[in-house]
Amino acid sequence: MERLTKDDVHPSIVKALLDQETNVTFEDALENEMILNMGPQHPATHGVLRVLLRLDGETVVAAVPDLGYLHRGYEKMAENMSYYEFIPHTDRLDYISPPANNTAFCLAVEKLYGIEAPVRAQYIRMIMTELSRITSHLVAVGALAMDVGALTVFLWCLREREKVLNAYDIICGARFTTSYTRIGGVAADMPDEAIGIIKEFIAQFEEKLDEAERMLNTNRIFVERLEGVGVISGEEAINIGLTGPNLRGSGIEHDLRRANPYMLYDQIDFKVPVYNEGDSLARYFVRADELRESCKIIIQCLDKMPKGEIMLNSPKKVLPRKTEIYTKMEELIHDFMIVNFGVKPPVGDIYSGVENPKGELGFYIVSKGEGHPWKMKIRSPSFCNLQSLGGLIKGHMISDVVAIIGSLDPVMGEADK
Amino acid sequence: MEIKDKIVPLLQEQFPETNFEVTDFRGDLKIKFDASQIYPVCNFLKNHDDLKFNMCEDVTAIDWATKKNRFTVVYHIYSLENKFRLRLACDVQENHPHIASVVPLWKSANWYERETYDMYGIKFENHPDLRRMYMPEEYEYYPLRKEYPLMGIPGDLTLPKK
Predict the structure, then answer these.
(1) Which domains does chain A have, with CATH numbers?
(2) Quick one: closest CA in B to A13, which residue?
(3) pLDDT exceeds cutoff 70 at A311
(4) Residue A164, Cα to own-chain centre: how many angstroms?
(5) How high is the pLDDT of residue A263?
(6) In a domain, B159, yes or no
(7) Does A379 sit within 8 Å of B110, measured CB to CB?
(8) For position B44, which CATH number holds?
(9) In this predicted complex, what is the ipTM?
């Protein structure tokens, strides 16, 4: 964190900070209020988030988040590439949980095309989504613990995450940027070896989770630094647009897997954890409980998953299988057309929102009947969750800022698009 | 009665003067109407006892690259009680594009409208803090407009001092 002079801050940002009459100054910090720059290069901001803090002593009087340090213009790029080409880019949105983003995007495009993936592919997608929820929440809980000083749990969480990444590696050949789903299915079938690894992971995970939770929940420093910090009421949380675990930590039972079931979530039995306190500790509890629920969902999916196709057989909309491209003329033509010109969907616009680990990830696609979208808007949960940051920090000490950012769990790749 | 069938008759009853253009594509209900009515319509949808669209999920715009009605501002609002999502759309002309802000109704629209302003240059009237969201404050262009080239404009970003 560095002290700023007046020339460093753009006048409009200063105006946003100074929402009331005050004698703010950039010099003479001990006598007056001062403005402090936090980020974009700061280990506790989870990426390149920049927050300008107006301080009175150590108390935050006002805070203005400043975004855009990771803005890559994905919405512009999407307008200039076919739907297939955009799948790898979804990995880089919420880079902690790529398979969930892949699934969200493919569900949106499938809604536009009016097709649906085969049952086995849907179960595989659900398993991958829940695995990515586990990895995402492990990082969130671990990083939150690290932010408030409990480093051990961070290492334990990343150790568990590594086991899930091993499963990713076998399923789709990549540990991190998976690009696993395809429009109309998934890229490769889930091998038995991977199923074995997932089962093995879940069998031992509960115990490890208990261990980590015992460590945190009985840790007085951890609890006291989060309890009653960054409180937001349910009504306010809806108004400011929180979704996901952050909303459920404020006592609102809203989960798109329940509210508007997609894929086969309506056939799965799971609880939606809700806590009423609305503080940072409640948001941590929601995530910890969701880890257990995700394990339950994965076990049910593995039991119910039938054998069968993993890609839809719809030659004009879905890429044909490689073996058929090499041996059959028709398939070769379809493959050539789809790869070069894209699949032409009907004219219209759709919105598809799914429950991602961070909250509701939505894609709004406007089609003019061409192989590429006319407009694509990404409604990213981290962006909307970060909006509450300014209000949450207000009135807290500067050391609580770190805890509140950690409990909101933003990922800047997604917030900046 | 399904919530989907209720919305349009209720709106028509409340705003008899306004023309509501309703489309239903792939199960998404979209209502298009005149931009001057955006605030009263949103106010009605949010506060009506049966509808209660209490969450604004997204505000964005579409650039159609046409002379007339160049932009369409699109709102996605969600009713937690009815578990239903509704899309509202209003056309905005190219010359001095502007529309009323819905921030007084939903605080979450604050950043969405800033983003839309940043990317398309549409002014939201009565917005409390209409600054750019991602691009630098002194940036001259609106990147998501169709005339903005994909590769960007060389030299448009000034390097920081020092």
Answers:
(1) 74-312+345-379 (1.10.645.10)
(2) B131
(3) yes
(4) 17
(5) 86
(6) no
(7) no
(8) 3.30.460.80
(9) 0.91
Does the residue B150 lie in any domain? no
Question: Comparing A313 with B56, which gets the higher pLDDT?
Answer: B56
Handedness of CA A120, A122, A123, A129 (dihedral sign): positive
Confidence bin at A133 (pLDDT 50/70/90)? very high
Query: Considering the domain boundaries, does residue B154 fall inside one?
Result: no
Contacts for B120-124 with beta carbons within 8 Å, 24 or more apart?
A: B120/B61, B120/B63, B120/B71, B120/B144, B120/B145, B121/B97, B121/B145, B122/B61, B122/B71, B122/B73, B122/B92, B122/B97, B122/B98, B123/B96, B123/B97, B123/B98, B123/B99, B124/B98, B124/B99, B124/B100
CB contact under 8 A, B58 and A377: yes
Whether A8 shows a pLDDT value over 80: the answer reads: no
Choose, out of A4, A71, A76, the residue to mutate when testing the contact with B (most B CBs < 10 Å).
Answer: A76
Nearest neighbour of B129 by CB, restricted to A16, A76, A360: A16
pTM given for the model = 0.88
Q: Which of B30, B58, B85, B146 to mutate to test the interface with A (most CBs of A within 10 A)?
A: B58
Question: How far is the alpha carbon of B33 from chain A, nearest alpha carbon, in Å?
Answer: 16
pLDDT tens figures, A186-242: 888 888 888 999 999 999 998 888 888 888 888 888 888 888 888 888 888 999 989
How many domains does one find in chain B?
1
CB within 8 Å of chain B, chain A residues 318-357: 348-351, 353
- Counting one residue from A and one from B, how many pairs have CB atoms under 8 Å apart? 98
Helix (H) or strand (E) holding B123: strand B123-125
Residue B105 falls inside a structural domain:
yes
Residue B13 — very low, low, confident or very high, per pLDDT cuts 50/70/90? confident
Confidence band (pLDDT; 50, 70, 90) for B73?
very high
Cβ–Cβ gap A75/B144 under 8 Å: yes
Six-digit token string for A130: 């829940």
In chain B, which residues touch A (CB < 8 A)? Answer: 23, 25-26, 28, 30, 54-58, 60, 62-63, 74, 76, 80, 83, 85, 87, 106-108, 110-111, 119, 129, 131-138, 143-144, 148, 150
**Three-state DSSP state, B58:** strand
CB contacts of B30 in chain A (<8 Å) are 349
User: Which residue segment(s) compose the domain that B27 sits in?
Assistant: 3-125
Do A364 and B119 lie within an 8 Å CB cutoff? no
Distance from CA of A17 to the nearest CA of B (A): 11
pLDDT category, A95, cuts 50, 70, 90?
A: confident
Q: Which residues of A touch B106 (CB under 8 A)?
A: 239, 241
- In angstroms, the Cα distances linking A209 to A204, A206, A217, A270 are 9, 5, 12, 18
What proportion of chain A, given as a percentage, has pLDDT over 70?
95
Q: How confident is the model at residue A135 (pLDDT cuts 50, 70, 90)?
A: very high
